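--- STAGE predict ---
source: upstream dedup step, 1 unique chain passed
mode: sequence only
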Amino acid sequence: MQVRVQSDPFDAGAELNGFAAGRTDVGAVVSFTGVVRDTEGTLREMLIEHYPGMTQSAIAKIAEEACTRWSLADCLVIHRYGPLKPGAPIMMVATAAAHRAAAFEAADFLMDYLKSRAPFWKKEITAGGADWVAAKGADEDALKRW
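--- STAGE serialize ---
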């Protein structure tokens, strides 16, 4: 299991290739990469803030839960912080399991957690100003599945 909270960009393809390299003990590797979305065409950047020790610990705890709950062979979670431009990767989750259902479910669980519970604060900076991103009801509802 690997959890990284970093400001530096990452290459999702290279990360996935490294994660899956040499694995002969699994039948499924699932990945998801989230990117900065600019739905209105006015986003200059997304600023993501966090408390370093707290964030790393909280994500590691939920990743351990996913590994145990779905009997994962491995998992990877990367989440960035700092100023990010539209289209930049924000986060990546990869899971490896004996079967695809476990790999998909664990990845979905981790993504729902990162979206709703991981201790990050996001501010959208546009031509018109800056606003903190509020929690969405749909994201909270997604957690109820687990």
